[in-house]
Amino acid sequence: MKINAQAEELNGRIKKLNRSVAELLSEKGRAIYFPKKGILSQSADAKGKEINATIGMALEEDGSSMCLKNLSGRININKDKVFPYAPSYGRPGLRAAWKKKIIEKNSLLKEAVISLPVVTGALTHGLNICGYLFGNPGDKIIMPDLFWGNYRLIFCNANELELNLFKTFDDNGGFNVNGLKEKLAEGPEGKKIVLLNFPNNPTGYTPTVDEVKMIREALLKSAEEGNKIVVIIDDAYFGLVYEEGIYARSIFTELFNLHSNILAVKVDGPTKEDYIWGFRVGFITYGIKDGNEELCKILEDKTAGAVRATISNASNLSQSLLLAAFEDDEYDSEKASKHEILRSRYIHVKKILKEKEDYKNHFEPLPFNSGYFMCIKLKKAGPEEVRQVLLKKYSTGVIAINGIIRVAFSATPDDKLDKLFDNIYQAAKSLAP
Ligand SMILES: Cc1ncc(COP(=O)(O)O)c(C=O)c1O
């Protein structure tokens, strides 16, 4: 791939600042840059001039954003925060507010050594950008074998990576840290790509505080042995932890400053945390030991270049609405009340499974303690057969994947939870030999 001089300049600076980061970038990651010349810089030069005929938007005669009343009349936000393009990096106020929130929610983080989040078209797009920046075709991405199905499309189809899976749980029902260690030790010393997603989709599992320590140690040891590791942290369900002793911060907190061979990439957003699935706003934030502001800024530039190359910029309306919500006094308490609804459903599910001894003849839950979901492993029937019976006879929908059934308690009203599990039980029993 021919590399533009602006990208060369960024790459040269990355190499001087941290060789490992330079080695972790993919071919496309090396080639990308945020254009400082051309249309964008010429538009910036014209800002504030009497006549500015540079921008690719339409303005009214008075210079405000052109828009249809039919649309602006429905939105209770200043139209200049809605109708124009947002910057490819994201709205500056939102980026700053999200960074502040990340630091507040993850007490060990140090402001100076993490980047300013770059706004993406929600987490799916953020994960795609990770594939773009760090994955060459054929590279392997290490992750547990119970994962969000869309990773296949994102990493394998869109970015030509290969999944390198280890068993999610060990024989004691804990996170399989040894599986991760084995995968890190596989193959020659060099670049490794790891993806961690807690709370996990589909299992609803977040490692305990001790398990997180062991994951941290495993990554540290591998980095000390000379491997260069990019850890993609999918924090889609961040904050939805319901038990004591479960790691409640993002694992990014353990990794952002761990070793100069470990680049921690936090992919997060308000999609699940703030219950705005359709807004399509997410963030990518970087952290690496001894990383300074300059390195962070270069990674932000490359990320914004990849945003510009793929979606140009994320929805201005969604970003402005979100920022307005963050600035509202009732935001925190409202969010806490929704968290409580999910937590009480979680507790209800645990109670049902504890009390209904008969269920154990037909299924067992996989370990779960957080998030939107829980999974069950059937003992005497196939998941797809059970799913079909549930649909046809019990008017109940669940997901059958990877030999298990995934139940979204996030989407099931509390007063339907007993019935939901009873239906699964009846369906499984009816299919048992
Ligand atoms: C683990 C995980 N990551 C990422 C996403 C995608 O989130 P978004 O809707 O923000 O693209 C999902 C959505 O289901 C998910 O379960």
Largest sheet, described in full?
Answer: 7 strands, mixed
Which architecture of the largest domain per CATH?
3-Layer(aba) Sandwich
Counting helices, strands and paired strands, the structural category is alpha/beta
Low-pLDDT runs:
none
Descriptive labels:
17 helices; Aspartate Aminotransferase, domain 2; single chain; alpha/beta; binds pyridoxal-5'-phosphate; 4-stranded antiparallel sheet; Aspartate Aminotransferase, domain 1; 2 domains; 433 residues; 7-stranded mixed sheet; globular
Brief account:
The chain is an alpha/beta fold and 433 residues long.
Describe this structure in words.
- This protein is of the alpha/beta class.
- Helix content is 43%, strand content 13%.
- The protein contains 17 helices and 11 strands.
- Strands 1-7-6-5-4-2-3 form a 7-stranded mixed sheet, with helices on both faces.
- Strand 8 and strand 9 form a beta hairpin.
- Helix 9 packs parallel to helix 10.
- The chain is globular.
- Pyridoxal-5'-phosphate binds next to helix 7.
